[in-house]
Amino acid sequence: MKQVYSDVIQYRGTHYEFGYMQGEMLKHSPILPNRQKQWGPKKDRHFLIDPKTVKEAIIQFAPAIWDELLGLRDALHMTTEDAIREFGGYYLEYGRSGCSIFTTADYMIRNYDSHPASYEGRYMLFQPTDQGYATIGPSMQITGRVDGMNEKGLVMGYNFTHRKQSSDGFLCNMVGRMILGTCANVHEAIALLKKIPHRHSFSYVLLDRDGESYVVEASPREVATRKSNVCTNHFHLLDAENRYRQEDSRRREETIQEKQQHTTDVYQAFRVMNDSDKDIFSGKYDASAGTLHTAAYFPNQMKAWFAIGADRKPVILDFAKWLHGEKINVKRIKGELAHASPFVNME
Predict the structure, then answer these.
(1) Number of domain units in the chain
(2) What range defines the domain where residue 117 resides?
(3) What is the pTM of this model?
C-alpha cells in the first residue's frame, strides 16, 4: 500500500492573484518537474498549440481563467506560450481513465479512476473577488477541475469515453473548470457544452439545486443530452462514438443501478462506490483505470465529502461556511492506494 495525500488549498482574491499564488507554491513543489519527466520526448509532438487561438478561446468562454494563467506565468517566469502549454487546457493529450458517477436529487457521488502518477493531489477552494463563481474540488493540470461544485450549487463530474478522432479543443478538466466558474445551473452548463470546442469524447454529469441530473455526451463532432442518474464510460445517445470494448463500463453501470436501489441513505450510497468489495471501486491502476478518489457533493447543503483510496470514511468539508469567511481546518487529506506509484505532488 502506498501512502498518498491531497493538499487542501484555500484562496480568496482575483484570478490573477490566485494564479500568482499557485505559481509561488509550484516553485517549491515536485508537480511540474514530475510532469516534465512523465511527458518526456512526447511533449513536442503532442502538446502543439497556437497561442493566439488558445487565448481567444479561453477569453471567449472564461476570460478570468486567462488572468489566472497570466498570474502563473509571471510567478514562474515563463513565456506566455509555455504557460499556455502547461496550464491552458487546450490541445493537450489526456491519458485513459475509467470513472463512475451516481446521482440522486440531493447529491452526486463520483469515483475518479486513473493512474496515480497522473494525479496532482491538490484539493482547491477558490472564491474570486473579480468575476465568476466560487468553487470547490480537486484540480487537474493546475487550472482544470476533475469534479466539483460552485457557490450556486451546480455540481459537475466527467467520465472518459475515448480519444479517437480528437480535434482542436479544450480538455475535460478545463471544460469542467469553465462550467463551475461560469454556469449557475445545469441549463447554462448544457448551453456552454454545446458551444465549447471539445478535444476528446467525454460525458459530463450535471446536478443543481433543482435536483434534476443530466448527462451531456460530448465529442469533437456532436453533443447530446439525456436525463440520467448513472454514468460510466460509454455513450448512450452517440453510440457511433463509443469504443469497441464496453464490457467493463456497462458492468459498472449495471452494478451501480442494482446496488444503489437498495441504499437508504447517502452514507450507504457512498459505501457502494468506495468499498473495495462492491465491484465498483477499481484497483486497475496499471491500466490507468484505478479509483483514486471518491467524492460526494450536496448542492442544497453546500457540503462536499472526499476520500482517497478504498474503504475510507470521507472528510467532510462545509463549503457554505467557507463561503461566509470561515477557514477549513484541514490542510491535507490522506489516503492509501494498492499501488507503488505516488501522486505527482510527492517526491
Answers:
(1) 1
(2) 2-337
(3) 0.95
